[in-house]
Amino acid sequence: MTLEQLAARSGVAADKIITYTEAGLLPCKDAHATFSADDQYWLDMVNCFLENGSSVEDLKDLMPLCEQCATTY
């Protein structure tokens, strides 16, 4: 899906998705690439963490660990 489609499906503004992608918080590391359902899952997770008080800086350390654990199991 495109960036605009992901923004519409997730309710997260496209500019925020670009910020999260550039910060390395999503598996898709290119904000201009095609996004997958997996990217939407991770975006939902990032958004949940942010809504509950985490910062983008906090998540720069946490999300790679989450991705690593997800691929391990």
TrEMBL record:
One Pfam family, short name: MerR_1
Domain of life according to the entry: Bacteria
Domain HTH merR-type: 1-64
InterPro entries recorded: DNA-bd_dom_put_sf, MerR-type_HTH_dom
SUPFAM superfamilies: Putative DNA-binding domain (SSF46955)
Name by which UniProt lists this protein: MerR family transcriptional regulator
Lineage summary: Bacteria, Bacillati, Bacillota, Bacilli, Lactobacillales
